[in-house]
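Posted in: Structural Biology > Protein-Ligand Complexes

Title: Requesting predicted complex, guanosine-5'-monophosphate in pocket

I'd be grateful if someone could produce the 3D structure tokens for the following input. Sequence and ligand are given below.
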Amino acid sequence: MAFDFEKILIEKHTIEKRVIELGKKISSDYTDKELLVICILKGSILFFADLIRSLSIPVKIDFIKASSYGTRTSTSGEVKVNDLLSEKIKGQSVLLVEDIVDSGFTIKRILDFFMEQGAADVRVCTLLDKPDRRATDIKPDYSGFTIPDEFVVGYGMDFDQKYRNLPYIAVLKETEK
Ligand code: 5GP
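-- Reply #1 --
Done. Output follows.
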């Protein structure tokens, strides 16, 4: 079955270039600190894997899963955090790696969760930022690309659990949704 996209929004090589830039910036910001990098499953898996390989500092990694309730293309304010963590959080510098910050409810809930666990410092690195739809006061510390209010898939992001394996980011045709 062929993919039917409206357009490719961000090409593979553009993502690769930006991830390297983010990796350099994060490495220089955390030279003197021990950093725990958190992959927020499932959407940030490809971004996370590329980002940690672009870091020039030693880091620990861990995983967390967040599920939100809402329609198929937008989230509600209710977010559940399924804790898969095995690393100690108390006193740690933590970097949350997210695919998209949209309303901001998901990342805010996760940020609060890590603060409640006693993290020393929690920052957010998102691949995509959709500021038009923000409903919280969240501002990512690191952001790959700011995009308009369009539903995107690929590079980890899904629609009905499909398209996560695409190496680029695309906008689905209305008929595909
Ligand atoms: P928020 O809680 O900020 O509204 O939504 C964040 C989560 O909603 C993201 O982690 C992602 O899972 C999902 N999401 C938001 N916008 C999009 C989008 O355009 N495409 C996909 N595939 N997921 C999205």
